[in-house]
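Hello Y.,

Per our agreement to keep a running log of every chain we model this quarter, I'm adding this entry. I've kept the format consistent with earlier entries: sequence first, then predicted structure.
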Amino acid sequence: MSKQLVFVVGSTDSRLNVMWNSNPDYALTPSIDKADILCFQGGMDMHPSLYNEDPIPGVYFSKDRDRIDLDAWDKAGTRPKVGICRGGQFLNVMSEGSMWQNVDNHGTSHTMINLLDIPRSFVNSGAEIEVTSDHHQMMVPNHHYGEVLGIANVATVFDAPKNVERLAPEYDTEVVFYNHTQSLCFQPHPEYDMKIMTRTYFFKLMEFFFR
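Predicted structure for the entry above:
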């Protein structure tokens, strides 16, 4: 099977380069037109207007970054898309999900539970994976379109604008897949060197959904 070409949206984090180059099934391309897969990476918060909310204090967004990601989304069409951290949150919003604008306890390592039974893999349903999620926001999945694949139980604060009525969730959503947009939303950081198990899980999901 030939390598799939990956285009990383925006200026590339060197750790992402190392991660993608570590897997012989993928190769990076500088051309979005030639890419088989688009990778949306981490960074600043999205502007909450993308999910029809006003920003609360503590949200730090970049409209330039939003424009870059929106332009890549438009060019991607039906091609597979994967997002890491902010990138996963962006894909969740573009797939008709929403966001908690502020949560706590996601700046260090913690345990995530995989909910997907992946053939020929160590990460069967119920497997625990040590991950690092370096963010203060969290995906609110659209359960009509999205399949939640990974969950955790670490956040105690779930902040939204006062005019948004939403109950605190039973669990923290970490990984979601949207079939209708071909989007894998992955909040943890598989590019971090010390999280080899997270990286293995990430690539198992890529293989399961996109190969």
